[in-house]
Design goal:
This protein is mainly alpha-helical and 338 residues long. It contains twelve helices and four strands; from the N terminus they run ααββαββααααααααα. It folds into two domains: 233 residues, no CATH class; 72 residues, D-Maltodextrin-Binding Protein, domain 2 (3-Layer(aba) Sandwich), CATH 3.40.190.10. Helix content is 62%, strand content 6%. Strands 2-1-3-4 form a four-stranded mixed β-sheet. The chain is elongated, with a radius of gyration of 28 Å. The two termini are 21 Å apart.
């Protein structure tokens, strides 16, 4: 294997990418715009968690302690029958009547109603004897903070799959691979060069997106930058190898695009990029564990939000590297120049 030939292919491929201004801009600005969009959509003042309807009560009445409960929005109601219907259809979580005789209505099938009822019944209770209150303060994790590791990993996935898989199929269709076959370049050297080239591109773009979004949003980074870099590096190797496996023999760009979409859509949905899979169907969670994007997102999120170190994410890094090695071996054996 010749290092000189590998470097020549790496340089040529990188020049091709950087000269494509539209593709370069898309890889950099698309994830930034997505993160800023989430920050805009989900920003704003905190909303109340529960809604309680209130009938009756005057300024001269003794104010129930329950009405001072924080994070509950108390909405005055004029029509009792209409308010009861709102409870029936979960439009309000509980209805409190302060007139004599005092009473309340709650929908027994409403989880929110159950919680609010417990708060109502315990509003005048004293804390258990011997139980000391210990306040904790800390910066809340915004949705944009939670979703950012997934967006970064998603950008790595798209850049790795289409930047390698689709491009090699295009090379094969346009006769570029046939011309390369006439040179001393071996299939193994060509595939290694594609991995190195795409790693350089993915690393550069990820660093730019990370720095740009951090400057604009000041998101938390509680773990090690070195561990985070290793996670994205291992994830990129795994996904690039997956792209190589797809492109090993495919000749049609349309077929390659369909196969890449077939692989990327399940990863986008099941890898925890947009929402947590906790509490979902157990089979969906088992399938998610087989996807490389799942391990990359989970490890990156634990590093950035929970302060996990290299030892805590070593399992995910190992899984990604092993998967990348297996896929690369299969790709090199199945690869055809034409």
């Amino acid at each position: 294997m010749s290092l000189k030939r590998i470097l020549a292919v790496v340089v040529a491929r990188n020049r091709e990418f950087y000269r494509d201004k539209a593709g370069l801009g898309w890889n950099i600005f698309m994830p930034v715009v997505m993160v800023l969009g989430f920050a805009f959509i989900f920003s704003g003042p905190e909303t109340d968690l529960f809604k309680v309807g209130v009938i009756g009560g005057t300024v001269d009445d003794e104010r129930p302690a329950f009405l001072d409960t924080r994070h509950i929005r108390f909405v005055p109601q004029q029509d009792e029958a209409e308010a009861i219907e709102k409870v029936r259809y979960h439009r309000i979580d509980l209805l409190l009547d302060l007139r004599e005789p005092k009473r309340y209505w709650v929908n027994e099938s409403s989880p929110n109603g159950y919680v609010v009822e417990r708060l109502l019944l315990q509003a005048h209770s004293e804390p258990p004897v011997g139980l000391k209150r210990e306040p904790v303060s800390g910066r809340p994790v915004r949705y944009v903070d939670w979703v950012l590791p997934g967006v970064l990993a998603l950008n790595v996935m798209f850049s790795s799959l289409w930047g390698v898989g689709w491009v090699i199929v295009r090379y094969r269709k346009n006769g570029v691979l046939r011309r390369l076959r006439a040179t001393p370049l071996s299939a193994g050297e060509f595939l290694v060069a594609q991995i190195i080239s795409r790693l350089l591109v993915v690393t550069g773009v990820t660093v730019l997106v990370f720095a740009g979004t951090n400057a604009l949003l000041d998101f938390p980074m509680r773990g090690s930058y070195a561990a985070l870099a290793l996670v994205f590096l291992a994830g990129a190797i795994s996904l690039i190898s997956l792209g190589l496996a797809v492109s090993a023999r495919v000749r049609s760009e349309e077929l390659a695009d369909g196969l890449l979409n077939l692989m990327s859509w399940p990863m986008m949905i099941l890898s925890g990029v947009w929402f947590s899979l906790e509490g979902t169907n157990i089979w969906a969670q088992r399938v998610a564990e087989l996807l490389p994007l799942t391990h990359m997102v989970d490890a990156a999120r634990r590093i950035m939000l929970d302060g996990a170190g290299l030892a805590e994410v070593g399992f995910e890094i190992g899984i990604l590297l092993i998967l990348g090695l297996v896929l690369l071996t299969l790709s090199s054996r199945a690869f055809r120049w034409q």
